[in-house]
Write a structure and sequence with these properties.
Layout (H helix, E strand, L loop, with lengths): L2 E9 L5 E8 L4 E5 L6 H16 L7 H11 L6 H22 L3 H4 L8 E9 L2 H13 L4 E6 L21 E2 L4 E4 L1 H19 L4 E5 L6 H11 L6 E3 L9 H8 L4 E3 L10 H5 L5 E2 L8 H14 L3 E4 L7 H13 L3 E5 L11 E3 L2 E3 L2 E3 L8 E3 L1 H5 L6 E2 L2 E4 L4 E2 L2
Parallel strand pairs: 4-5, 4-13, 5-8, 7-19, 8-9, 9-10, 10-11, 11-12, 12-13
Antiparallel strand pairs: 1-2, 2-3, 4-16, 6-18, 14-17, 15-16, 19-20
Helix pairs in contact: 1-3, 2-3, 3-10, 5-6, 6-7, 7-8
Bound molecules: D-gluconic acid and magnesium ion (MG).
The site of magnesium ion has 5 residues, from loops.
Length: 402
């Protein structure tokens, strides 16, 4: 069997998605997600101009060799653009392998380690009362785990808090919107939210929170310590993680579990974090971390050090990544939790999926391969629209982390 051709589909049903479709000479095709929020076209070019010409004629069965060819063969290693492009190829090849062998991808990854994949929902509100109500709404829908983000008095627009609660979508058409941030106001407010959540819903539900890269290590230590009585499942991205050593300081000050890595793109971004056991959950998703092949290595490495997976699953990860993640989550022993931010209804006009949700768990389905398809004619109805994530400034105007 040989790779005969490949094309990149860019579509915007409510938000932009980049999808790679690889065809074999025997009529089987596979899909991979290459969406990089706010920088989509760079991955399109990487694939069309530099990767696809090298794929033609190769045997799609040799997934590892093709992965190494694209990674080592580029000479320029790592980075979100390169690794998202490699991830797309890798996902498509696992999809093809599953279809050729007539089995779901989780079977190729060692089979089921569990019956279902625990997912967490996103609840948010403009104040504590509204957020507490929103969390209740998700618990009523059967979720066992809910992430809670809440408006901060005196801060106009806060990460994770939407006007339309069902679909928080930070990327905006046009040029990047600007937010204003106050760490002081945030730190004083956020423990009150989780105190109220525990008072209202008791000890059982898992609560999570995303600090979205806003704190210094010592501030992260403070928030982690103040949240300890409310035993969170995790705090996420409490500090930007380029400086992996900085997590030593956070660890010295709190037992609140730490999750990090949605912006990472290879094992080298987390090597110290994992080997020194400075984190509890690795969030790098299949699309960011070079596909299933590289994420297998990250998960196996993490397993040795008691670190579990907790994959990113926001709306900018396409249904193809969601499917690949669910196959992966079902199969690895050190799975922790999977983020679930459901796509807008209109996305199912373009993508069809075999995965399902029931009582707080998701299931990848038993279709051969990844169990996702794309309708290219329908995709054409939704042309690409340039959109950016916000930038963030402190109250005095200093550019800050968003
Ligand atoms: C999350 C993330 C997202 C990101 C988004 C950026 O935990 O789900 O932080 O909300 O901001 O994926 O593209
Ligand atoms: Mg996050």
């Amino acid at each position: 069997m040989k790779i005969e051709k490949a094309n990149v589909i860019v579509t915007c049903p409510g938000r932009n998605f980049v999808t790679l479709k690889i065809y074999t000479d025997e009529g089987v095709y596979g899909l991979g997600d290459a969406t990089l929020n706010g920088r989509e076209k760079s991955v399109v070019s990487y694939l069309e101009d530099h990767v696809i010409p090298c794929l033609i004629g190769r045997d799609p069965a040799n997934i590892e060799d093709i992965w190494q060819y694209l990674y080592k063969g580029a000479y320029w290693r790592r980075g979100p653009v390169t690794m998202s492009a490699i991830a797309a190829v890798d996902m498509a090849l696992w999809d093809i392998k599953g279809k050729v062998l007539d089995t779901p991808v989780y079977n190729l990854l060692g089979g089921k380690s569990r019956q279902g994949v625990m997912v967490y929902a996103h609840a948010n509100g403009s104040d504590i009362e509204e957020t507490v109500d929103e969390v209740g709404r998700y618990l009523d829908k059967g979720y066992r785990a809910v992430r809670a983000q809440c408006g901060i008095p005196g801060v106009e627009s806060v990460y994770g808090v939407s006007k339309n609660k069902e679909s928080y979508e930070p990327a905006k058409k046009g040029l990047p919107p600007e937010d204003t941030w106050s760490t002081e106001k945030y730190l004083n407010h956020i423990p009150k939210l989780f105190e109220q959540l525990r008072d209202t819903y008791g000890d059982d539900p898992h609560f999570l929170h995303d600090c979205h890269h806003r704190l210094t290590p010592i501030e992260a230590g403070r928030v982690g310590k103040e949240l300890e009585p409310f035993h969170l499942f995790w705090i996420e991205d409490c500090t930007p993680a380029e400086l992996q050593e900085s997590f030593r300081i956070i660890r010295q000050h709190t037992t609140t579990p730490l999750a990090v890595g949605e912006v990472f793109n290879s094992i080298w971004d987390a090597q110290l974090l994992i080997s020194e056991m400075l984190i509890d959950y690795i969030r790098t998703s299949i699309v960011r971390g070079g596909g299933i092949s590289h994420m297998k290595k990250i998960a196996s490495f993490a397993e040795i050090y008691h670190v579990k997976t907790g994959f990113h699953g926001a709306t900018d990860l396409s249904p193809v990544t969601m499917a690949a993640a669910l196959h992966f989550d079902l199969s690895v022993n050190n799975f922790g939790i999977q983020e679930r931010m459901p796509h807008q209804e209109i996305v199912s006009d373009v993508f069809s999926t075999a995965y399902s949700f029931d009582s707080g768990f998701m299931y990848p389905g038993d279709e051969p391969g990844l169990g996702v398809d794309i309708d290219e004619e329908k995709a054409k109805k939704y042309p690409y629209e340039r959109a950016y994530l916000p930038v963030n400034r402190k109250e005095d105007g200093t550019l800050f982390n968003w």
